[in-house]
Write a structure and sequence with these properties.
By secondary structure, the protein is an alpha+beta fold. The chain is built from three helices and three strands. The chain has helices spanning 8-13, 38-45, 52-63; strands at 15-16, 22-24, 48-49. It has a three-stranded antiparallel beta sheet with strand order 1-2-3. Strand 1 and strand 2 (22-24) form a beta hairpin. It is elongated, with a radius of gyration of 15 Å.
């Protein structure tokens, strides 16, 4: 039986925290941030966690 490979795109995008939650990035952060108001930019700096519905699928992608 061959080894299961992890999805490299998922490995680059997600990190598993010690408590088992999965950290994720925020959309709309790359460029042209001047169009966004300050409150939106501030909210995008806060850490984000993946929804409970998607945790099982993402862990499967990361571990392989």
């Amino acid at each position: 039986m061959p080894k299961m490979k992890s999805v490299k795109g998922a490995v680059k995008r997600f990190k598993v925290k010690k408590n088992g939650q999965i950290k994720r990035g925020t959309a709309f952060r790359s460029h042209i941030l001047t169009k966004q108001d300050a409150g939106t930019r501030r909210k995008q700096n806060t850490p984000k966690v993946v929804a409970n519905v998607d945790v099982k699928a993402i862990k499967k992608m990361i571990v392989g």
